[in-house]
């Protein structure tokens, strides 16, 4: 942690924020959940997206109009947590719009923003974030999708990297596990332009889905999820399609993930809360051994544990989001907090949902039961946007970065730490 003053962290929501969350949960149940059945499982549900746009909810995850204000991380977390509680499909549809459009909002040109962001925020255009590849998942910096300067790929006349040739590139390679693919209207694609090895040789592009050479196929997942593989066969892109500077694409991807990681935690907290509430209700009415399940201490203590861990995860998520929102000077340890929040919340949700299944017994495993659904949904967030092991590595790296900063001056640090003890 830094020695700079701590960020403003909300440990309690305001009455307005609580009322908004309650309203969102009701919207999820009454307005959005009925639309889920209008779509096909594992496909993009455009009816649901348009409803999210009409309700003004997408505009909280994607800036939809000039001046393209930065998305508020805490708003995003409250939205995702509340929708996850009552309509996880709507939650996921909303989050994916934000993730896919994030790089456009961050570094897009005026033309790119005007063309795509209002349509994404209205639920009229579908966005996707294409980083992962068959041989580059956790090690995203190893991505291999090539962006070759036009002149070089046509007749090998040579180009000079990202700015060489005719000023355009051809994209060749494969992206996989891409949410909303192959149905999205555009993809933010991270490709190797080769300014430097590893993460420094990556450039981001905005690729409309109708570009020649771009094709895709859906993948069938444990929990129905609009997701697929994309094949790029010399797909043409121009300077106007570039997102940000050549060689700066990996930083664009990481900034988007820093915003979204705490909100993946919020999604997990929403699911955990739904599992907990179902368990409280069930244990309070299920007859057992002359009483009800909650009368058994083993069960009531399990409920207490589930509630405590869920609340701890929620607070870490809110703190990470507040740190992001108030990070004017860059001293809030945003990456560290985002990783901690995502790690704790997704692992906690897995534990809570599993414990809820145990409390419900066989009924929870019947197809169509809330917990059967949550049991399948809760697994993926421990893998995507950085697996739990990757978050731990990231956290440890950030902790040592802080230590390195103070290495030069251990005495000052000692004096600083002991100031209060010596001068009460
Ligand atoms: C539902 C879902 C939606 C997704 N949506 C998108 C999307 O929209 N866009 C996108 O680009 N990608 C998306 N992904 C892909 C996701 O980001 C990758 O699955 C993730 O980065 C992990 O990569 P991998 O699956 O190739 O696993 P691998 O990288 O092969 O890792 C497998 C396992 O190895 C271990 N491991 C890996 N690295 C380390 C390490 N450094 N230290 C310790 N252990 C390690 C972990 O246990 C990890 O789970 C999605 C995935 C899922 C499941």
From TrEMBL:
Keyword Flavoprotein listed: yes
The UniProt record lists the keyword Flavoprotein: yes
Pfam families recorded: Acyl-CoA_dh_1 (PF00441), Acyl-CoA_dh_M (PF02770), Acyl-CoA_dh_N (PF02771)
Every Acyl-CoA dehydrogenase/oxidase C-terminal domain range: 247-399
Domain Acyl-CoA oxidase/dehydrogenase middle: 128-234
Cofactors, names only: FAD
Keywords carried by this UniProt record: FAD, Flavoprotein, Oxidoreductase
Domain Acyl-CoA dehydrogenase/oxidase N-terminal as annotated: residue spans: 14-124
Region entry Disordered, spans: 148-169, 402-424
Ranges of compositional bias, category Gly residues: 158-169
Entry's family note: Belongs to the acyl-CoA dehydrogenase family.
Identification of the protein by name: Acyl-CoA dehydrogenase family protein
Taxonomic source organism: Streptomyces spirodelae
